[in-house]
Amino acid sequence: MQLKSALRSCRKGQSLYGYAQDGRKEGDLVTIREQLEVREITYLSSYAALSRESKGRKVPEQECDIRPVFQRDRDRILHCKAFRRLKQKTQVFLLPKGDHYRTRLTHTLEVSQNARTIAKALRLNEDLAEAIALGHDLGHTPFGHAGERALNSVNPFGFRHNEQSVRVVEYLEKQGRGLNLTWEVIDGIRNHKTNGRPATLEGEIVRLSDKIAYINHDIDDAVRGGILKEEDIPREYREVLGASTRIRLDTMVHNVITNSMDCPAIRMSPDVAEAMAGLRRFMFEQVYQNPAAKGEEDKAAEMVANLYHYYRRHMDLLPDQFLDRIKNGMETEEQTVCDYIAGMTDNFAVKKFEEFFVPESWNF
């Protein structure tokens, strides 16, 4: 009733305030954000990352009166331009002929859903898990891992998509100002790869949810594309995990929850973990390195590498936002070109390649 009263007051132009329920004197006004922070303390697991105990942001900000910090980070990622560009970036199948294949955006949403389900069941911080999941692939290149390998080979500083995702949220979004996310979200984004070591259990959830998502949806896409049949999956993996994508996904998520409940770690049972690792190896052999599925990747990698070299010779073609970082001594030319190309969608990269390297028809 007190919360409803506070919301009614807000509609009348007043601030969003409720009444304290955490030991303060009765009638003391607190924000809805503070009420939600108290709810976290009373409900979440002792292993959860609490919003009010965040290590904070690089640039201190006034707190929102409605949203705890991790929810606020989730919203910032969801509304940023890099997130919207994921809809036209390759997941596994390069420029597939069909509307139902995954893109980098749909992959991200599936990782987020897995992470939220697991975090909620374990009474961990769902907002933090979701924010990390939504931001974990913001730095991915056009053409998926082919583009990543190309930039890694031509950029003298190397290229790793998880580190690039951190660059996006810290330096590149909002005209170079970044999103100013909390330490915990940035840590989870940086450490989402297999060899990462996230500092929070929520980050560990995303690291595992990423694998669960791509193994299962890549099988689904491979079957749709005629690269695999369900019967091609080795029997030992199907016997442990299930004989369909839906059942395997359900098995993995449930197994993580069952084996991580009230524990200071996110884990699977040994048999399921071993089967998932074997299934992942199978996918690398049969799909990720299959010429039928990946036959165009060499062309895409060459395209990305040629774009890099062209922009290095024609730095004036970069947008002012990127040139300003060089002029202000904030970044090298090599890294700036890498940042620009990494942010391209597949379609935009193809357009730029055609503009620079494909002769136009003559008009007489």
Explain this structure to me?
The protein is mostly helical and 364 residues long. It has 18 helices and 2 strands. Strands 1-2 form a two-stranded antiparallel ribbon. The longest helix has 24 residues. About 3% of the residues have low confidence.
Topology:
Layout: H1 2-11, E1 17-19, E2 29-31, H2 32-43, H3 69-79, H4 81-85, H5 104-121, H6 126-135, H7 144-154, H8 161-176, H9 183-190, H10 201-224, H11 235-241, H12 245-260, H13 270-288, H14 291-294, H15 297-313, H16 320-327, H17 333-342, H18 346-357
Antiparallel strand pairs: 1-2
Helix pairs in contact: 3-6, 5-6, 5-10, 5-12, 6-9, 6-10, 7-15, 9-10, 10-12, 10-13, 11-13, 15-17, 15-18, 16-17
Quickly describe the structure.
With 364 residues, the protein is mostly helical.
Helix content: 55-70%
Overall number of strands: 2
Distance between the first and last residues' Cα? 77 Å
Order of strands across the main sheet: 1-2
Task: List segments where confidence is low: pLDDT < 50 over at least 5 consecutive residues.
Answer: 6-15
Shape: flat
Oligomer type: single chain
Q: What labels describe this entry?
A:
364 residues, mainly alpha, 60% helix
